[in-house]
């Protein structure tokens, strides 16, 4: 136990802060109730079921996966050997990479044919499962069992949910019915329940669980007596003989002790063991609670410290900042208490409070009971002397009026549900009614008001907010709030188990014909139960969001005061605060919510609230990941994998992988990242706040009042086109001013968060995207932010530097300063030589020489200056305990993976995979190659080459080189280079007369040529991956082929004869198009850490939902939708590389954690303490080698062969080739339709793959275009895939953009020159207008140069390609070079 004084202090601060929220102690999780926090708590401990994936599952594994070369690696010979006496063991082998067989990949069930949409029926029950399941859940929760029964009946009728899953729904219904019967015993209702059981469960042959039998036993006990009760109990217990009966009787949350006594008396083969349920009760006395509260004043007084300076507020259109301050009230009240010093349970309680603070605080501030709020410590924005009509006075009125309006709406919902004949409005109410009933109207009103005001402030309150987005935002926050409320209730009613013994003889157990119970105590069933607390569908979100917004629009008023234009009297009027209207946006009319002009002005002066508490850092260690939605925050739900709402496939693969145990390593890796503890670097924060409050532009801080001059307005007599150009210039200035203002507002939020957490230890829970790349979930402040956010974060734990650590700290400073291409010794010397400037920067950062501001990352440089200064203040700097993260960055990490995959020796040298005395710089290498080629062009008198000579720098080419490996197009590369030319040489156009875009096109061409020369192996792999993606996306799976075959046979049967031959070429074409609409195979692969990756690119469809406000259109996609073929094949190579670098990062994190290192990462930048950099560097190399010493590409090919076995894809070959001619002759004689041809090939392929000699012989007798193709050993290039992969490879330039026409450039230059200001006055009006309009066309070069080339390409193609169905095979693996990845061990600059 803590000492009494310490305990009193902790309890004081906790009581002060927690009391302000008004959350009753009964809402706390069970582990927290045992802590002595100033509350009277009662805790009863019961035997609970073990859940799969508990925290214990995250213990490090002792097993080994594969024997690797790591075992033979001696750390003593490595330049990254552990420091003497560091206590860290060397790298023990990457046993986290468990072997998996690529020939048996994880697969999910193939979706059936698309279901036709089913409309809502006359009772108001929807027809789609995604709507019915949430509606059922909501009806059960609010006690509308009659409507829940209608949903279940329709589910039984439609049959879209399997029986094993339907029983979970029936169990929910039975439990809810029992709860009603306990309150109001009704024999009639019990009879109805027995009838329900017989008709809807037994007659439907739905498998039952122990919960089902327990519920029916309870129903019998509540309603029956005497012999009928005995018969019912005997009957139900006969359905669960032996051990199954134990599971039934162990459900203490359904059957009470007295119930069990009755059952065991009737069925004496079971014996109740009451000692197992003895409760341990922990009480906190009222006296102790009073004693704690009485000590408030003394402890608060003792802990007073000087107030931290406020951060100068940036005037904002919206109340995001003010709400943030209110949401941070809990932290601000404890600014002088270090929460990390409390127990784990108390830290978790603080975190739960922080996650729940926003809505409670907002409602409390708007309540009229101000005395009570002040008594419990809640600060309110309402003040007695507030101006009449201020926004702070309007909010409580809106809350009250909307609350009343929602109560009226709930009454109307009741009426609509009871109507026999329902109108359209009644049916809508039946759909959204159960969800409105679930929540407290006050909270729903608060959710709506805050969401609307915040969303308006974020999206631009003076322009109107697009209604579709707003509806989605309001419903999302409402759903989250409802879920949190019911989570509290669910925790209180957590299921309990009791100990029951079976005392009968096993031989006496007879298999009863009624024994239908299934084992339903495993984790799979628990996941199903939780799964039915479904996310709201798009339809439900639209309906709920619309009614909430409609209620706000109808009730929210603002008092507008104006001066009469004639009399001068002040007159007032109450006007709607919000209006719904249609506005033209991008050529379409869309619904928008427009704020009252007077309200807009008030919001500019007086900020409003925001739900951002769940986006803040955590003050307790994140919950370990165990399932799709279990991990990270303690109460707020976040998905393990970030996917778009319509991306069902990735969710299915992820859940299947979790159930199979394949995600354990990814879970553990994210847990390692999440449990890294951080603190605010107060030295940097102090300087940042001081700089911020000056309002000046310092480092990346935008100025408070930017000095942007507007161009002079032309005279009204000037040509209208000149005025249009002036208007565009004014808009450009205003857009820049707005961008700077938005940037400053966001930085304002970040500084407020840092200020609030400056004395706390914080954590950043992580999740992954669909490729496995990890991201922090808190969005506002994290280590993945810009320079200023990285600089104000440091590790919570410090480590003594040591000699090597001091060296790495100096190297780190040189890196962030921008001196990162020199050798390590030179970088260390740079910091040593500039030590005086470093100390001066840390001593007087803003009023001195400001040396640190010259750095590439100035704020991070300043943080390193503080650290080095503090170290050198000691007699021995190596003894300094450092908390600063030191970064090790990869050299264009994507190219590193490509070089290793392709065995590309030259490429490996350029990205530091091979040893070298100095770091290789791929960007400088590309820049040098570009310079050489441009010099040759300049010698040949190329005008553009002469202009850009001497202007090609590393910075010009860096972004294009970095992103080319991740799929940037040539068009994107031109824009990237143009952006750099604009920044580095803004006056170049005035000097040479050639537009920057043309110059950038020329430079980008040379960059791509250089890349193709340097990374030949990577180029080949990219094309191989693209070819695979192109074939997969044009394939039909065996399941699809069987569906097509079945429907084809039904067509033939229905017509009574063989399907008609398609002679008309147009009909044949339409047959192909019908089949191509069924191309839905997405590219799926498995990462080295066994995470399945499914690319999400599909063709979306629009779904229109009619609501009480307007029709809302959403883009939706499903497994049955056709894939977006171009995106699939072009996205596969970069996404595959992303999945490799993500695996490398997580594998490194796991091993660093095992060695006791603090570890953080920003994709390919890895961070640890300076003292541990040597150890981490060894881990990074070994993890990379461990991944690439296996045949990654070969394993991928084997996985694809197994995953898509039996599929058939549509190839397109040149129509003039010999094999195409022979196929045409075959088709003339066979006269088969495209579908018949496909079915014949499916039959041949099935026989061929069976392995049966008879089937193989039969397959040889079938002649199809594919058999002709195989017989001629053809290897024709797929024309369509070639077109779609054009420009995709590293350094590949599309044919239509490969040339620069000198005449076109000269013509463009003349055109631009003719539009100069000097000539405007002397030219004829008509000629001026024509030329200016042409000059305004930024794409003139494309119109005159590129488009004609496209036309030439079309003419050159001639005939359309020939489409044929071929068995899905994959091209041969690209030849690998001779680079040995093991050489990486000796490369000291791999990560540096």
Automatic annotation (TrEMBL):
Sequence segments annotated as region (Disordered): 1047-1067
Pfam hit, one: RNA_pol
Alphabetical list of InterPro entries matching this protein: DNA-dir_RNA_pol_helix_hairp_sf, DNA-dir_Rpol_C_phage-type, DNA-dir_Rpol_phage-type, DNA/RNA_pol_sf, RNA_POL_N_sf, RPOL_N
Location in the cell: Mitochondrion
Keyword Ribosomal protein carried by entry: no
GO MF terms held by the record: DNA-directed RNA polymerase activity; mitochondrial promoter sequence-specific DNA binding
Gene3D superfamilies registered for this protein in UniProt: 1.10.287.260, 1.10.287.280, 5' to 3' exonuclease, C-terminal subdomain, DNA-directed RNA polymerase, N-terminal domain
A single GO cellular-component term on record: mitochondrial DNA-directed RNA polymerase complex
E.C. code: 2.7.7.6
Protein name, entry field: DNA-directed RNA polymerase
Organism: Cylindrodendrum hubeiense
